[in-house]
Amino acid sequence: DVCPLTRRLLQMKRWEEELSAGLTLDCLAKREGVEPERVDRLMNLLNLPEERQALILDNDPSIREVSIREALKEAHTYQSWLRMRETFERVRHWRVLLSRGYSQSMIAAEEGLTRARVCQLMKLLQLGEEVWSGVMEGDESYMGVSLRSLTRGL
After folding, report:
1. Full-model pTM
2. Of 21, 61, 68, 143, whose CA is between 20 and 30 Å from 10?
3. DSSP string spanning 45-112?
4. In this structure, which long-range contacts are made by residues 60-65, counting pairs with CB atoms below 8 Å and at least 24 apart in sequence?
5. How far apart are CA 91 and CA 124, in angstroms?
6. What is the torsion angle, in degrees rounded to the nearest 10, for the CA atoms of residue 139, residue 142, residue 147 and residue 150?
7. Residue pair 139/85 in contact by the 8 Å Cβ criterion
8. Which residues lie below 8 Å from residue 44, measured CB to CB, with a gap of 6+?
């Protein structure tokens, strides 16, 4: 007996193949009798970590009670953490650039950001090693946390 989450993830993998082969999101949505936004939202199941998708596809008992809504929330949280980690990596690189004589204005121009945004993000360098390690290693206490909340008060 396959659980609903497993069925839905299998369906999303089929849809992903069809979209990659050239089917448009609108055509897929029309065929399935749903709004394109719903297709797009459900496709976010493919943003779950690979290990989690493997458990779902194996219909592992540990995921049998997980709802599609919970899995979508988990996928969103995971993607937010990935973006945060990428931002931390960029800021770490900027620190190297600054040590080589770049200015924040030069970094902003190179990154396509405002100097104010670069300045805001540079505040991440003031965070302690514990926070940096936690974010970079995927500590669950940093999942779903915003950059703004991390730098508030700095």
Report:
1. 0.82
2. 143
3. GGGS-HHHHHHHHTT-GGGTT--HHHHHHHHHHHHHHHHHHHHHHHHHHHHHHHHTT--HHHHHHHHT
4. 63/3, 63/5, 63/6, 64/3
5. 7
6. -100
7. no
8. 72, 75, 76, 79
Among 51, 68, 69, smallest CA distance to 60 is for 51
Amino acid in position 20: S
Stated as kind and residue range, the H or E segment containing 119 is: helix 115-122
For CA atoms 65, 71, 74, 75, give the dihedral sign: positive
Q: At what angle do helices 68-99 and 4-20 cross, to 10 degrees?
A: 60
CA distance 53 to 121: 32
Q: b/e for 75-90, b at 16 or more Cβ within 10 A?
A: bebbebbeebeeebeb
pLDDT in tens, the chain (154 residues): 899 999 999 999 999 999 999 999 999 999 999 999 999 999 999 999 999 999 999 999 999 999 999 999 999 999 999 999 999 999 999 999 999 999 999 999 999 999 999 999 999 999 999 999 999 999 988 888 889 999 887 7
* Alpha carbon distance 82, 78 (integer Å): 6
